[in-house]
Amino acid sequence: MQFARKDILDMESLSVEEIRLILDTAESMKEISRRPIKKVPTLRGKTVILFFYEPSTRTRMSFDIAAKRLSADSLSISASTSSLVKGETLLDTARNLEAMHPDIVILRHSRAGAPHFLARHLKSSVINAGDGIHAHPTQALLDMMTVREKKGTLEGLKIAIVGDIAHSRVARSNCAGFTKMGSQVVVCGPPTMMPTGIESLGVSVAPDIDTAIEGADIIMMLRIQKERQKGFLMATEREYSRFFGLTPERLEKARPDVLIMHPGPMNRGVEIAPEVADGPYSIILDQVTNGVAVRMALLFLVAGGARHADVD
Amino acid sequence: MQTLIKGGRIIDPARGIDAAGDLLIDSGTIAGIEPGGSIEPDGDHCQFIDARGKWVCPGLVDMHVHFRQPGEEYKETIATGSRAAAAGGFTAVCTMPNTSPVNDCAEVTRFIIEQAEAAGLVRVYPAAAISRGLEGRQLCEFGELAAAGAVAVTDDGRPVSDPLLMRRALEYSSAFGLRVISHCEELELSAGGAMNEGALATAMGLPGIPCAAESIMVMRDISLARLTEVAVHIAHVSTAESVAAIRRAKEEGIPVTAETAPHYFSLTEKAVEGYDTHAKMNPPLRCEQDRLAVCEALADGTIDAIATDHAPHSELEKLVEFQLAANGVVGLETSLPLGLKLVAGGLLSPLQLIERMSAAPARILGLPSGLRKGMAADIVIIDPEVEFTVSAAGFRSKGRNTPFEGWSLRGRAVLTMVGGKTVYRDAGFGQ
Ligand SMILES: [Zn+2]
Ligand SMILES: [Zn+2]
What value of ipTM does the predicted structure carry? Predict the structure, then answer.
């Protein structure tokens, strides 16, 4: 299969076949990271710009490592330090970037739709590394890769996503991605954190965490931010952890082979009890490893990888 | 100098007339009108306008426009806004006060009127601010503003959040004959919102604005109108819930009037898909059930008037991230054609549409409107059949921010006359 897509903007726009190709490619990329010399020449001569309007060490590092392992030249620009960005509109910045002829621009932005905007104005490929509360497709893909690796399939699995669904781009992209691949997704959280019409993403809403995790194959706990008290979204962290936190007792309701995921960084003792976070069910570190593989796969594919692969 | 408009379909909602006939203009005023008959000119120097197949109507009145002057002349000026109005078939507009400086004192009101007179196109009636600087703290000098020519007061662009200020504005305005126009928005509920709250906003990852942010304040203002017995006019109604509240209030005899804008009866939130900032406005586009409720309210008179909320912006404000984009769309040059779609769809009769776009807003603002002998010849001739494609590049307005680009529409103004003077003539008409 040819990967014809210029940009990776959200999970909704990817087809089942494209997702499968990305995950398969990511699996083959994973092997590179295990070699003593973790570098292949595949993207030699390609320029990748990491453009981060929002601080994010983990995602940026993951993309940076992915680009370097494929021998691409990568360059980081962060909005807080760059004069390129200060006082300029996103359109100005896009035009400036275009003039440098990058092959791929990876954008993290605090506003929904910013990567879509950039993609409309750039000839280079745009990969969304998280836009506002909208989408985080590379996170969803690495989550799906991790689950598929552990469970052998995505079809027919019950995935419970618990936490602040309304303000989570990870939740949105995972809802769209997992349901597309045949999983059954159940979301749960305080009603204040449940966005209107979330069911339209093909997921169901559980009335409480026990119902959500009952018989679940995968439990994904979202990070709770203390600032949420501001919009009256929750009362206290203490109460949150009692009614919506993942504890060892609650975990007994899930399947015995349940796996626990978290997009990080975790608040141990708030949304997730320490013994759960660090316990045998946790695949949080596998997520990090697969993050690099998925991002290598995406860089490879949008750079026209399938065509170059025959030559290499 | 006489002008005789011959053979048109004369539509005058003020008198309920809809009949073929002639209309004679002499020295800027209507000198004769014969629905169902014909007029022969008595002077030698008579100009004829062949209006067969056309509608001859009182000039349209847009009671809600933002002309950006003073302060943001790069978006629009009173002159360019007036040209857009004339091209859209409007002979009178009411300008909102959220300029820079705000129209909260007689000097600014007079400035607007002077600029409009210099432009010499349409009649411009300023709405002044309710509160100094639109800050919601101190009442403006309504008497001075009325004396300077303001016809209404509103903090449009913002709501009057303080219910006591709103109460006092209603009471105080009645001493000076100023209509109070309310932009209904509960700011705590709409804060941070970029589009209608619902499944689409959830899927797009955009913070939502619930319908309740509007309807709560509509209900508050209805209560205050009941309390003060002073009429309140609700601007840009967008939700089914607001419509229901206004309908109930009218049944109870509470003095309330309302307007909606063409985008609320023509579009739903789906127009923002793809993060199209040209479909971003406040209040936001809602769901199909809201659109249908607005249509129904226009038909049964619950919503009195169609007003554009013409809000020109430059690319600077629109070619940005959706959440950062300014609210507002231009409307003057598409309002009538979109209204005519409601006629084509059987929702409104021609007479009803023209009423919603001329007599009703004029009545609310206390302005003259109609085709009676002796009245100023503020007239629009409409070709209901002409088909065209909306192209913002051809707008007279400086604003290009329309969500209707590329739409195929049927019917528009072909000649607009203010006080007998032609202020707009379609290139293809009467040559
Ligand atoms: Zn308004
Ligand atoms: Zn307005």
Answer: 0.90
